[in-house]
Specification:
Layout (H helix, E strand, L loop, with lengths): L2 H4 L4 E8 L5 H7 L3 E9 L6 H12 L7 H16 L35 H80 L6 H26 L8 H12 L1 H29 L11 H8 L4 H30 L3 H25 L25
Helix pairs in contact: 5-6, 5-7, 5-8, 5-10, 9-10
């Protein structure tokens, strides 16, 4: 159990594991749980007893509130003087803990010497394949760049349309407010005069009716002029409602243009995806195995600008890898057979360690189905899912 879990527990015989980071209180708890025997297992590189001794001295040298070790030192002083610096009392039931010796490194398997002649050739062929794949990815990136530029132009148009619509709405609201107010005033004047004519006396009724007719005609003329100017009738709604209704109706031309631009952008994205996939051609999946998933995520969302960035980065990585492999092939070509053997041995040992570590981190839990495996598709030239 842990040191915290051992607090308050007493056993006949106790063994405490001491490593770096243990403090004095924790050491005290673990070293005082046994009635008859307390052992300490010390972790030290190469089982060095001097390092183990310094570890215990460092732990016990820390300040602490406990006084158990002071009393233990007084009782052990006589034993140290009588029996020497070290006191080794073995338990009757628990065997003594022996220092663990360092494990011997497993021998690195030696590859077949017949492969030594093919080392430089394999690296040269791999460098050529990576360079060819980089060229294909660069051409695909150029295609994506052209469509990305078209989409950037459409985005600029959309921004201009939005700014123009906002500006027109502001101007129309100001002008409409004045025009609606003018028409409403003429309507009210005509209505007031018609009401006055209906209640006028016999001597003034004729003139009042003529004035009401003139006011009604003036209001009608104002409404015709309003319709000619703004393209909409004043209507019977309130003034604020009429202003917003007519202003948004006049701004509908920008909404139409925005929808057209967005449809064009969707068509460009669809064309870009097809063209980018076509530009990849019959590139073999094994050439870009480390970038296939990344490029698939870049192309699938139909974003040419995003695909351009990923394609360019993958092409640059392949160019760098191809250059390094070509240099390595040249070095191996001029190396001695023993130097090639050493290089192969180190590479295969590193691959074995990496494979073992990967199995520990993420063990295989199921076998891949045949339909899930990526095979070369001559009809499409790309892996499934692209």
């Amino acid at each position: 159990m842990t040191g915290y879990g051992a607090q308050g527990i007493t056993v006949d015989e106790a063994v405490q594991l001491v490593d770096e980071g243990m403090d004095r209180p924790g050491f005290y708890v673990g070293a005082t749980r046994g009635r008859y025997t307390n052992q300490a297992a010390l972790i030290a590189p190469d089982a060095d007893p001097q390092l183990a001794r310094r570890l215990v001295e460092q732990v016990l040298g820390q300040p602490g509130a406990d006084t158990g070790w002071k009393a233990a030192n007084l009782h052990a002083k006589t034993d140290r003087e009588r029996m020497g610096d070290l006191v080794d009392l073995h338990s009757v039931h628990v065997p003594p803990i022996q220092p663990q010796q360092p494990t011997q490194a497993e021998p690195v398997p030696v590859p077949d010497p017949a492969r030594l002649a093919r080392v430089a050739t394999e690296q040269t062929e791999t460098a050529a394949r990576e360079a060819a794949a980089a060229s294909v990815l660069e051409r695909a990136a150029a295609v994506a760049a052209r469509y990305a530029a078209q989409l950037a132009g459409i985005d600029q148009k959309l921004a201009e349309f939005d700014a123009a619509r906002t500006a027109q709405l502001a101007d129309d609201r100001a002008g409409l407010a004045r025009s609606v107010t003018h028409v409403d005033e003429l309507r009210r004047t005509a209505g007031d005069l018609e009401h006055a004519a209906a209640n006028a006396g016999l001597l003034h009724r004729g003139q009042a009716r003529r004035d009401a007719a003139d006011a009604r005609q003036t209001a009608k003329d104002a409404e015709r002029a309003f319709r000619k100017t703004w393209g909409q009738d004043r209507g019977l709604d309130t003034a604020p409602q009429a202003v917003e209704r007519i202003a948004h109706a006049r701004a509908g031309i920008w909404r139409y243009r925005t929808n057209v631009a967005r449809r064009d952008a969707d068509n460009i994205r669809s064309q870009a995806r097809d063209k980018i996939l076509a530009s990849l051609g019959n590139i073999h999946p094994s050439w870009i195995d480390g970038y296939a998933h990344d490029l698939e995520r870049a192309i699938r969302p139909d974003q040419p600008d995003h695909a351009q960035e990923r394609l360019q980065r993958a092409a640059a990585d392949l160019r760098e890898s191809s250059s390094e492999r070509a240099k390595l092939a040249a070095d191996l070509q001029g190396a001695s057979p023993q130097e090639r053997l050493d290089w192969l041995t180190q590479r295969e040992a590193a691959a074995a360690r990496a494979s073992e570590l990967w199995e520990r981190v993420q063990p295989t839990t199921h076998r891949a189905r045949p339909e899930d495996e990526h095979h070369h598709r001559p009809d499409r030239g790309i892996t499934p899912g692209w």
